[in-house]
Amino acid sequence: MVRTRRIWVTAAAVLALAGGVSGTTAHAQQAPAAAVSDGKLPPGWHIDRGRPTPQLVWRSGRRVPMGDARVEFRADGRLLGVPKPERDGHTFRLGLDRARAGALKGLQVWSGGRRLDTRPGAAESGPATAVRPPAPLPANPVDPGRPGPYRTRTGSYRLASVRLPGFPVPVEMQAVVVAPTGISGPRPLALFLHGRHATCYAPHGGSDDASGAWPCPAGTLPVPSHRGYLRDQRLLASQGYVTVSISANGINGQDWQAEDGGAQARSSLIRLHLAHWADWARDPRHAPPIVREAPRADLSRVLLIGHSRGGEGVNRAALDSLYPPPAGQDGYRGRVRWHISGTVLIGPTVFGQNPVPDVPSLTVLPGCDGDVSDLQGEVYVDGTRAVSTGRALHSAVYVTGADHNFFNTEWTPGQAQAPAEDDFSDDPDHPDPVCSPRAATRLTADQQHRAGSTYIAAAARLFVAGDDKVRPLLDGSGRRAPSADPARVLAHAVGANRGAGFLPDGRVTVTGGRLCSAVDPDPAVACLGEGTTGVSPHFAQWETGREAGRHAIALHWTSAGSPARIRTARPVSLSGADALALRVFVPPNSQGTALDVSVTDSHGRRATLGRVRVDGLPGSDRTASYWARELRVPLTAARRAGLDLRSVTSLGLTPRSGSGRAWLMDAWAWRPGTPAVRAAGLPRVDIGRLTVDEGDSGVRTYHVPVRVTGRGSGRVRVYVVDPATGTAKDRLVTVAPGGHGIDVPVEVRGNTRYGADVPYDVLVKAVHGAVVGSYRGGVTVRNDDPAPTLSVTPLADKVTEGSALKWRISLSEAADTDIGALFVPVPVGSGRTELSTKDVDPGWLADVSGADPDPERPLSQVDGLYLWLDVPAGQTSLDVTVPTVPDQVTEPAESVTFRQTDDSGHPLPGGPALTGTVLDAS
Question: What is the Cα–Cα distance from 66 to 214, expressed in whole angstroms?
Answer without folding.
Answer: 13
